[in-house]
Amino acid sequence: MPNNPAVKINNLSYHFTLEDKKRFEVLKNISFEVRQGEFFSIVGPSGSGKSTLLRIIAGLIQPSSGSVELLAKKSAMVFQNFAIFPWLTVHENVAFGLRMAGVPAAEQNKIVQEKIKEVGLPGFEKKYPKELSGGMRQRVGIARALAVSPELLLMDEPFSGLDAFTADALRSDLLQIWQKHRMTVVMVTHLVEEALQLSDRIMIVSRRPAEVKQILEVPMARPRNMRSVQFFSLADRIKSQIEL
Ligand SMILES: Nc1ncnc2c1ncn2[C@@H]1O[C@H](COP(=O)(O)OP(=O)(O)OP(=O)(O)O)[C@@H](O)[C@H]1O
Ligand SMILES: [Mg+2]
Question: Which of 37, 192, 208, 213 allows an S-S link to 204, with CB 3.0 to 4.6 Å?
Answer without folding.
Answer: 213
